[in-house]
Amino acid sequence: MASRNFVVLLVLGLLVMLLLTLEVAAKQLGEHVGGLAQLTNGDPVGTGFHNDFSTDWNP
User: How far apart are CA 31 and CA 10, in angstroms?
Assistant: First the structure.
């Protein structure tokens, strides 16, 4: 019976660790997507090149 309790606690602990990892990963992904939106200067498709001086499309 003790081994079943141990397995239950182990699974719960792993589940909590997985959820925390996913939360951190989602936060990092959100920052990454935010950075990409800044890099494309608000252009979600990213059709134009972006530089610091102009928002024109530079072929």
Answer: 32
Phi–psi pair at 10, nearest 5 degrees: -65, -45
pTM (predicted TM-score): 0.47
Tokens representing 7 are 């397995």
Q: What is the pLDDT of residues 22-55, one digit of tens each?
A: 888 777 776 666 665 555 555 555 555 555 555 5
Domain that holds residue 3: 1-41
Question: Which residues lie closer than 8 Å to 58 by C-beta, 6 or more apart?
Answer: 48, 49, 51
36 located within any domain = yes
Phi-psi region of 25 (alpha: psi -120 to 50; beta: other; left: phi over 0): alpha
